Amino acid sequence: MKKAFRRLAVVMSAVLALSFVLFGSMTSIKAQAAEKARATYEDAGFYEMTYISADDEELTTDDLEEYGIIAGLVLNEDGTGFLYLADDITEFTWQDGQITADGEVIEYNYRRDTITLEEDDEESHIIMKFTLSDEEAPTIDDILAYYEDMYGEGYDDGGEDDGGDDFSDWSDFGYTDSSYVRVDNVEDFINAIQDNATIVLEPGVYNISEYLEDADLDAFDWDAYDNDEDYASESYGLLVDEVFDGEQLIVFNIDNLTIMSADKNDPAEIVVDPRYANVFTFCDCDTLELDHVVLGHSDGDGSCTGNVIGIDYSWYVTLNGCELYGCGAYAFDIEDSMYININDCDLHDCTYGVATIADTYETYFKYCDIHDCEEFTMFELSWSEVNFYASSFEALDGELITLDDYSAAKFLACTFDDDAQDSIDDAVDAYEGLVTVD
Asked: Which residues lie closer than 8 Å to 162 by C-beta, 6 or more apart?
């Protein structure tokens, strides 16, 4: 799966880069043509994406379906249209084999009901193919509503405030055949981590390091992971990785896992002792949710180089109402992943920054309180797209954000204290359209 993720990350990152080169930030761009030119009506229609390639890597129709990538091209007969890649939407005008958005033009080729967009940038030769569909074309509102449902503010956990423990309606959140278990100690908690599990934690502190001292878990083999295509299927489950001052737990190739507190008002706390260990590392996982749990390092001397949560080669990872605190070096270290959704979380007191995000498509921070982190850059982006919505940034001792030419960050309805405001203003000026604030 790791090689597949790398292939996916290469292609998606290159497509995002092309989108920024051609059209600027993909979300909410309005075509600026003064008048609509006559279109070639024979080309009008709804086209679904069937192929993407970049850097000698490609995704076919089967790949797009497997990864759940929804993308298409709509050409209206009045000469307007839009391209959507997940919930990134570019509006444009079109005519006679050309698409124009925000003053930029790209030519397309139409042949046998297939439209091909092909472009070279500084790094990649990119090809996207869209095939005419018999389905009714979606509207922009349809697409945004679909993803609003997907990335909502959480779920009704059926707790005491809602009339009892009814954890039944998981289908709305992508969970199927979940096994539900309620635990009150770290051994039962760790042993319950498996595919299709919903783990409800009673109030208390769950020290993973105490469990690992006596556990007989296989070591995570980074070399095999990098070079053996069968390693993920042969070694899935719970593994350990040795760090300088102890061990860290690797949740490897686990799908459809939920970890939640039984009482939102008295959330369970998950900790580790080693300063060099992540509290959790999720690797090669699909569809994970943490709900109203607290995560950090236990009290002890020394600063941390381990993070709170590491996310590698995983997709559909959601945190709702969680607290992540330092001395984790960063709250999140995210790499080669997709669809990371962080809702209503309190992120504070990390010693290096808030998040490093690399080669990752679609990360959202919504309604988060981000404060009292220090020393380096709060958010470091590389080949990644991050959206912040209605989040607050206060008491951050460091530059707010840095990114490369193939990344973008959008801040919508966010609030900043004076220092954070100065830093985000500098970023808007420095990155020329890659950082936007609305």
From this structure: 156
Please list the residues that pair with 59 across neighbouring strands: 52
User: Which residues are 205's β-sheet partners?
Assistant: 269
Measure the CA–CA gap between 407 and 355, rounded to whole angstroms: 14
CA 117 to chain centre: 26
Q: How far is the C-alpha of 87 from the C-alpha of 65, rounded, in Å? A: 16
Whether the pLDDT of residue 232 is over 90: the answer is: no
The H or E element that residue 15 is part of is helix 2-23
Compute φ and ψ for 57, nearest 5 degrees: -110, 150
Whole-Å CA distances, 386 to 105, 259, 401: 26, 24, 11
The H or E element containing residue 296 is strand 294-297
Is 253's pLDDT higher than 80? yes
Q: What DSSP assignment string belongs to 238-279?
A: EEEEEETTEEEEEEES-EEEEEEES-TTS--EEEE--TTS-S
Cα separation values, 419 from 163, 172, 365, 422, 423, Å: 45, 41, 20, 5, 6
pTM metric for this prediction: 0.72
**Cα gap 196→184, rounded to integer Å:** 20
H or E segment and range at residue 283: strand 280-283
Counting every residue, how long is the chain? 438
pLDDT of residue 60: 85
Name the strand (E) or helix (H) holding 287: strand 286-291
- Give per-residue pLDDT as tens, 346-359: 999 999 999 999 99
Structure tokens at 127: 């090809």
pLDDT 10s digits, 49-58: 999 887 677 8
Secondary structure element (H or E) that encloses residue 293, with its range: none
Q: What is the chain's Cα-based Rg?
A: 23
Supply φ then ψ for residue 409, to 5 degrees.
-140, 135
Question: If you search the block for the tokens 């790499």, which residue do you land on?
Answer: 335
Beta-sheet strands, E only, within 27-79: 45-54, 57-59, 71-75
Cα 403 to Cα 401: distance, rounded to the nearest angstrom: 7
Chain centroid, CA 160 distance in Å:
31
355-380 confidence digits (pLDDT tens): 999 999 889 999 999 999 988 999 99
Structural tokens at position 52: 């993407």
Q: Give phi and psi for 82, each to the nearest 5.
A: -155, 155
**Count of CB atoms within 10 A of residue 98's CB?**
15
E strands, 154-213, where?
Answer: 179-183, 197-201, 205-207
